[in-house]
Amino acid sequence: LALSEVRYCQMPNSKVKVEGVKLEANIAVNRQSPSQISYPEPKKPRTVEDFNLMVNYILDYVAKEDVDGRLMNSSPNSMDSTATASSPSPVLHNDSDRSDFESEDEGYHTVTCYCAKPFAGRPMIECSECNTWIHLSCAKIRKSNVPEEDKLNLCDATAWWTIRLIRSTKKMDRVYSIEEQKVAEKLTILNTRCVGMLTQLYNVKKACGDSKSRPKYFSEKNYEPLTSRIQKKFPNVDMSKDKVISQLLKDCYQDVSSTLHYYYQTFVEILDFVDSTREVLTSMNVGGIFCDFMINFDLSRNFLDLVTSYCKLMILMGRVEDRKAIVGLFNAAYEMQNGQSEQSFHRLTSMIMEFENPLKKLMDEFSFHSKNLKSTLMSLTEIYREKFSVKETINGLISIASKPMLIKNVAKTPKMRADLVLRNTMNEWIIVGFLLLQLQFPEPESHNLWKEALQDCFCFPLYRDEVVVVQRLYETPTIQNNKVSLSKRLKEIADYTTFAVTQSGVKHKETRNILKLPLNELRLIFNDQPGLVGPKAHAAMVLLSLTKNEVQWLVHHSENIPLKFRNKVNADDYQEENLGEMLFCLLEIRALFKKHADIVRDYFIRYISEVDLIKFMEVCKKYPQLDEEYHQLIVSFTDMMKGLSLSEDDHKKYDLNGFRLDWFRFQAYTSVAKPLVSIRSVLELIPVMDAAVSHSYYIDGYENYLDGVSDLSFLFFFSNFFRFNFGNCVEDYRFSRYAIAFPMTCDHFIGCTNKFCPEERTPIRHRSVLLAERCLEDMAKQTACHLEELCRESIKLEQQVLPVNAANMLKQEAAKTKKKQKDKGRIKEFITPGTESYRKSRENLTRIDRNVASVTELLAAFTQFDTIRIANATLCPIEYLRDVVDETFSGSFAALAFHDPDSGYIARPSELLRSVSAFTRTLKSVDHFATVDIGGLLFHSMLQHTQEIDNRGQKTVSGLYSSWFIDVLLNKIISGGICYTPSHKMFVSHRSVSLKAEDYTGVAELESLAELIGPYGIRVISSKIIERICQEKIVQTNLSILEQIKSKREFIDNNRNVRDCEELLNKTKKIGVMLCLRQLLHDATFSVLSRRTPTLLTVIEEFLSHPPNDSYLHHKYETASVIGIESPIDSVLYSALKAKKESSNENQQIWSLYIVMIAISLPDLLNQDMFIYENVLGGFLNNAHCLAKAINQLASVFFFPGGDKAILKNLVEFISIASDCVLSLECRKTENENEPVKHYEHLYILLDIIVQESHFLKRDSIEKFISHSILRDAYRQVNLIDRDEAKKRRKRVDGRSHEYS
User: Sign of torsion, CA 402 404 408 413?
Assistant: First the structure.
């Protein structure tokens, strides 16, 4: 874009005589001193009208040039076409050109005046400012009134660019050539570059405005004197004279230079962009190029885009508060480092000072382009007003189902390119354009256009989240002080703004409601009939552009309502409850376009080559002058259309950018003041080529074309709006299905980046992925919340049919029958179960209905897409749902246990099973009409409860019940009041204890627990019990006496000397209680498995009955333990005690002595009060019968390495020692009548229970030591106990124990 500037060193040295006046033209050597001649002052200063007159002179000169010269400039050899010829080089006066001029009289033919005419002997004067020689007639100076020094008023910024343009584009013998100026290429590049400049400047503004990213030189107090002094001295910061700044920068100038380099270069690039923009706009003005949207759409749009973007850039630069400090501080550091100022510093400071008030400077600049700008805006009237008739547009173009006969026809309009321009963009053009025109409305139509734009929007985006409020923009002091008549305009602006705030929201809401139906219609038809994507592509594009326009308007206006109107407007007008549906339809239509891109591409390849080409050739026949004057462009168009084919290679990639650029060039070439062929004379060509260009985008650039009408990247900078509408969409069950559109929209956010700022791509990509993940997590949490609430309602309904609630209902009915008002008032009203199902209509939705609807819609949202692509990450929505549901269900199941560690309360297993069953039934019912496998999610969640803790580290149902059994139930049993009843296979409470053990250890309760947590969960509880057993210490005292007892029976009386016998019995009894509890759990597991998996259990039992060999014994017993079958050897207990034995270096002798010590300690049971055998319970009230389980299991485990014989030998020895102890005590009782009465029959019964419990001892084993008659008498004596005493004892047993009896 750097335009070459041709400098002419001097006028030729000659003396010229003109009408008797001799003027010295020797400029380089013999220039006449101004003091030698006295000239009067000019009569009036130069004005803007003088410059406009100068431009008219230039245009008149261009019109009067020789026709042959024009033909030479526009000949085929100089025509620019991408198809057949390369682009000409920039316009420079090379040596060959200058040699031709020097061959003649150089002074006579030299051109320096802005009229572009040579000296030709006419008198000239030199400008003292720019040293430019100007004709006296052009400068409007009389020969008799020449001033001493003349500074042309044309030497301001714009006029200098005009003179520079003439110098750089005029050859000495050729006229102005628009082809050589490359207006089309420059407009395209400048518009792209301006977006990059806006991005860089936006990042600079945000960095300087954020305390975290702000350079330390502007935030720390140490540098405050430096920055404040530079801002005060700006732009006259002279380092050679200002010693204060030099002293402050002495130690940090290198750091300042490296830190502020990026910021400074941003302003330098803006300076270059401003220069290039001024040059292009001036070239268009000088060339007399007109812009009309109905004729040269590309030229007009690019012109208005450049004007609007240029104004936005300057306004945004004015919002950077630290711009002076950045430029001044960097240059000061640069000067200290390099000894001179940065080369762009002086021009940069001039630009910053000029745009101190950007609106004033912009209005002054564009006063020279007012004619072209005004005509361009007025050409927008028809297109702009068609944007308001959305309903007619939809009925005529988009509504497919309403016109089924035309469903295969191609969707097209005369203004296909203009149909896709957003109305918001047109509003920006109109508001900014008439602002630059200083609100001058020569025609009523222009005033109406401006009025409609103001009534449609009261703000527009500057860039990203930077917004300009229209009323504030017009109320700046610059505009108010411009003319007195502006007071009337300001009043109109205030009225229009009030109308826009109060009424435009309603209109746009109606528009969004209108768009809802065609969006869904088009989405469904494209899904059902992909072949229609090609013919209806333009209709889809128009609909997408209308949708994007409404979303964009809603985003910018909902967050910028003026404070004084916030209480007056209806908030619903600036909110959209079905925004999620609109976004979802837009995204799905986009996805369908990309999915069927090959169909669209092939369709339009054939359409251009078979339809557009024929129309183009017919138009060319009507206008033969086109081929004569613009031969290469016409050939380029024809060749491109003919070159499109599907026969050679269906997957061939085409690049049609040259075709579109050639059409843009053609518009620029034929829109000048005096073209070879005016575009107005070939109006039939315009719709044909516009249609062909529109169709070409579907072949090679449909993604960029699609982004232009449906890109939603602007939502990235309005996070509050995004989160608010996402939350509303998720919570409203009517639109929950479309909530998935919000995380999908995050894929668009990477599109807001710009290649001029590659450093922002990584953070924006990262934030986009995080935002999408957060949306999916919120959706999953909302789904889990609805599922949980739905299950809670089901649990409440389940509880209504419990016997407790049934008793309340019967009590209530009885109270009504007896008509006892007193009791009736105290009874709560009871709702009969099932009443909630009786409804006359479904209009009044219950909470369950809403939850079911919300769950259904949210689950449908999760299954819309298998994966979502966000930047470079791929997200799976169903995985987020699975994780959250797992976490929620796991916590819900654990919460249903209602475990309270402080009070020791926990729900009964049967109650928990009933609640979980209601939970699962509800989820399975949802699974019937949901597209997500809820059963699989539930199974995965329940599987976690078979372990002690879940994946979050929280206790599961297995963990809660294992802790409760060990810490609560076992402690209650040991403290007394609870005993184990072998007859009923449970623990019962026989004292006034707060805990009713039978409510938790009954067969039904434990089977319910086994169904909940399964064999793995039971194994967790069993492992906890084994760990607790292993924590009990084995008695190792009095080893010498025990050895004597074992070797010689005469030392039997020494058992009185054994210490801690009672403690040993209590520990062993405790172990027996735990083993009994463990056996109850195993029995419940076996019962459940027998009912649920009988076939599998049969196979396992067969294996246990016939193991392959003795090496499989350990595996056999381990398998039996898992499925709940009682085996002679408890492999789990054996493994645990074996590990403990190895760690404590205990030998076999210690285990044998332990058995002996238990045997000699048995008589001490007679000293316990509750050592009483109950026939009803089948055991002792102090759980002494649990010793049988402990002795047999411990003996089998202790002596398992020695085989069954060793186990049998030690058990027989135990019975022998124990029986000897009992018999000797009974004999002593008969000898000493003074001893208190003791019931030795209970000890005999205990020994009999030990034998019955053993897998190794037989009945005759005890009869060797205790006769059958003794055992018979013992049982008989127990049965003959006085009935009164038995009743007294049985009162201690809980009422439920009597029920079991």
Answer: negative
Alpha carbons 614 and 607: distance in angstroms, whole number: 10
Q: What is the pLDDT of residues 309-357, one digit of tens each?
A: 999 999 999 999 989 989 988 988 888 888 888 888 989 999 999 898 8
Residue matched to tokens 């004084």: 564
**Measured between alpha carbons, how far is 176 from 171 in angstroms, rounded to an integer?**
8
Q: How far apart are CA 676 and CA 671, in angstroms?
A: 10
Helix (H) or strand (E) holding 1133: helix 1131-1144
CA distances from 1011 to 183, 184, 871 (A): 82, 79, 47
Cis peptide preceding 235, ω within 30 of 0? yes
Minimal CA–CA distance to 422: which of 547, 303, 309?
A: 547
What is the rounded CA–CA span in Å between residue 362 and residue 484?
A: 20
Q: Find the helix or strand (DSSP H, E) in which 1278 lies.
A: helix 1268-1279
- φ, ψ of residue 106 to 5 degrees: the values are -65, -40
Q: How many CB atoms lie within 10 A of CB 63?
A: 11
Contact 811, 827 (CB under 8 A): yes
* Residue spans of beta strands (DSSP E) within 324-458: none
Q: Is residue 27 helix, strand or coil?
A: coil
- Residue 20 in tokens: 């008797």
What whole-number distance in Å separates Cα of residue 693 and Cα of residue 686? Answer: 10
User: 1161: pLDDT confidence band, cut at 50, 70 and 90?
Assistant: confident
In contact, 1042 and 1141? CB cutoff 8 Å: no
Looking only at Cα atoms, what is the longest distance across the chain?
174
pLDDT band at 648 (very low <50, low <70, confident <90, very high): low
Q: Give the number of C-alpha atoms closer than 13 A to the C-alpha of residue 285, restricted to the C-beta side.
A: 29
Residue 124 φ/ψ, nearest 5 degrees: -135, 160
Task: Tokens for 282, please give them.
Answer: 């001036």
Q: In this structure, what token pair is assigned to residue 107?
A: 């002074």
End-to-end CA distance of the chain: give it in Å, rounded. 105
The three-class DSSP label of residue 903 is: coil
User: Could you give the 3-state DSSP secondary structure of residue 1032?
Assistant: coil
**Given the structure tokens 């995050």, which residue do they identify?**
746
Is 80 exceeded by the pLDDT of residue 1103? no
- The answer to whether 968 and 905 are in contact (CB under 8 A) is no
pLDDT at residue 1043, as a whole number: 58
Compute the radius of gyration of the chain from its Cα atoms.
50
Question: CB of 862 within 8 A of CB of 779?
Answer: yes
Question: Tokens for 488?
Answer: 């009337």
Helices (H), 670-760: 685-700, 702-710, 719-731, 741-745
Distance CA 314, CA 365 (A): 12
- 476 CB-near residues (< 8 Å, 6+ apart): 357, 359
**Residues 725-745 pLDDT 10s:** 999 999 998 899 999 999 999
Is 1226:1266 a contact under the CB 8 Å cutoff?
no
Rounded mean pLDDT of the chain? 78
Of 841 and 48, which is predicted with more confidence?
A: 841
**Strand positions, DSSP E, 1006-1087:** none
Name 268's bridge partners.
Answer: none
- CA dist 711 and 700 (Å) reads 18
pLDDT of residue 38: 38
Closest by CA to 445, choosing from 369, 379, 500, is: 379
Looking at the chain, the number of H-run helices and the number of E-run strands are 61, 12
What integer pLDDT is reported at residue 776 of this predicted model? 94
Residues 1219, 1162: Cα–Cα separation, whole Å: 10
Q: Could you read off the pLDDT of 526-571 as tens digits, one per residue?
A: 998 888 898 888 889 999 999 999 999 999 999 888 888 888 888 8
> 573-582, 779-788, 1241-1250: which range is least confident on average?
1241-1250
Cα–Cα distance measured from residue 1010 to residue 1012, given in angstroms and rounded to the nearest whole number: 5
